[in-house]
Specification:
By secondary structure, the protein is an alpha+beta fold. The protein folds into two domains: 5-60, Ribosomal Protein S8, Chain: A, domain 1 (2-Layer Sandwich), CATH 3.30.1370.30; 65-122, Dna Ligase, domain 1, CATH 3.30.1490.10. It contains four helices and eight strands; from the N terminus they run αβαββββαββαβ. It has helices at 5-18, 31-43, 79-86, 106-112; strands at 23-26, 46-52, 55-60, 65-67, 73-74, 94-99, 102-105, 116-122. Strands 4, 5, 6, 7 and 8 form a five-stranded antiparallel beta sheet that branches. A hairpin with a 2-residue loop joins strand 6 and strand 7. The longest helix is centred in the N-terminal third of the chain and has 14 residues, at 5-18.
């Protein structure tokens, strides 16, 4: 386990997906991770997540997810370059960006003319 909770959780999700499961129980989580999952849930890549005791249970419905490392700080002009790099198709997937207005998808960041740090991508 590393110090990056987002990367650890997304790796656990992908390992469970490769093993044929559609859910995972994670014992480390943070408020940033919960906010990330709220955005991803709105987009439909995660069915549901809930806190049970000290654990976080996640039910997912996605093809691929991964944390972006290093967390590139990008302005609005170069977001499209990273969309082409990480997402296989233009309208298929999201990149979650941490901006000064909170976490949002790359589409919302472009709409609001905001840059920020790239956290993860999902498709």
């Amino acid at each position: 386990m590393s110090q990056d909770i987002i990367a650890d959780t997304l790796n656990q999700i992908m390992n469970r997906k490769k093993a044929g499961y559609a859910d995972v129980v994670v014992n480390r989580y943070s408020n940033l991770l919960l906010e990330l999952f709220e955005i991803v849930k709105k987009e439909g890549y995660i069915k549901d997540y809930k806190i049970i005791g000290n654990n976080l249970e996640i039910k997912f419905n996605l093809h691929y997810c991964k944390a972006i490392k290093p967390r590139y700080a990008v302005n609005v002009k170069v977001i499209d370059k990273y969309v082409r790099r990480f997402i296989p198709s233009r309208d298929f997937g999201i990149i979650v960006i941490s901006t000064n207005k909170g976490l949002m998808t790359h589409k919302d960041a472009l709409k609001n003319n905001l840059g920020g740090s790239l956290l993860a991508y999902f498709f």
